[in-house]
């Protein structure tokens, strides 16, 4: 027996950054909001004594349980896709707060070029540069940076971002809410070298706050302690902007928002009387197995990239992308991220690299976007080059020279010697959308709830490989200028593999745009086929940029929240 619950104005599927933003904004407008979260409730009070590298950094204590739900992977359609049995290439968050709980806090705005990459590339280099004959599918996002900038600003103010002006970034309507983080000797070494090379260096925009800050909603955040436990960890100091420290308490304080945990949504329900609408969602209580229907006037999919796609697919909403015909849009333009970097060995210097913060770093965009001439290069876009001091934790930090054995006394001696005398400079590379990289569902494997797993078909493209090589070489040049005794440049990319860990910057599959022939949602993240269904997250990206995605995801969530509120107002006016 499926129990039908009381109807609400808005239901969000997932309570992380996107679900929290939509809940806060809608609830402040007086709408009743139900947040369905398949994980458990948690807050800063739960994060004491969390500096356990083995439990959280190695055994992924804050992540999704892949024995219950995972995805299958293959490099191409000729291979059989097999399940990811343990966390590997990327780390999927779980519980209230989602991946926003254990992120590093690097808070980049995508470049103006990103949102109009197709038209800007054609204008400067001609249409052939887009590489359509080679299967690349670059497209504009259906929104410009200028249109999205007010929402970027909202996200900055909510999080209290610490930073300084990026000389090569898009314009800002307001300065950063808080000053940049500490400039350490490591960062100063990078800064002096790159400024001497004529590059445009600046501090990273950071959600690890440089000072105490109270945001416009009245939530107060503490200054960072530079403990070095950010990525894969929660922050017990209340010093990292996360959904639990900002938007979720704001939503709860209105009295119009409720979170229901242990609620795994398995279907979006299309309205029986009008197939242009949805009427709610069906979910399973993960503890009891009982099923419920949550009716709602508006449904917002606010979970991770793969789950947003999966719910649309298994609910038969939208047309699945077919790589043979290139018809359909759902699952299209999946992208990932690569890091073209180098390691510098500073044999006569020592650094306090064991201290730091997730977004403590220096950066430059001289090789990002279209800031440099691509006329004679075999790729588009580029990447943001950084040196970061995120905290070198002892289990995961074993930097050795390439010819060192991976075990024994030599390995131990080299690890100890290099622990505080090596630095990495890395280019976070954009990735190219290609017709053969996409999401589907796997007919051979189900999750623990009987729902098919997502099937990922993905490999690095030739553009990805060339871009990666270019950024690695530039990173090596910077390390040489910094005075490294020896520089080891990252090797070339081979085929993509589901292990080891690389990045949790998965994008695409529910792409936004102004044309329903090549996108799933419009620029308010409203589904083209269901008027009261909104889908928001990094799945909306038409390609991946040379940055971390969270700030852009947050800006899209604020844009989506505006669409949700306006849609609700329109419907009430019609009813009146």
Automatic annotation (TrEMBL):
Glucose-methanol-choline oxidoreductase C-terminal domain segment(s): 433-557
Domain of life of the source: Bacteria
InterPro entries referenced in this protein's UniProt entry, alphabetically: FAD/NAD-bd_sf (IPR036188), GMC_OxRdtase_N (IPR000172), GMC_OxRtase_C (IPR007867)
Domain spans labelled Glucose-methanol-choline oxidoreductase N-terminal: 221-335
Keywords: FAD, Flavoprotein, Oxidoreductase
Pfam families: GMC_oxred_C, GMC_oxred_N
Gene3D superfamilies, per the entry: FAD/NAD(P)-binding domain
Residues in the signal sequence: none
Family assignment from sequence similarity: Belongs to the GMC oxidoreductase family.
Name this polypeptide is given: GMC family oxidoreductase
Protein source organism: Corticicoccus populi
Top-level taxonomy: Bacteria, Bacillati, Bacillota, Bacilli, Bacillales
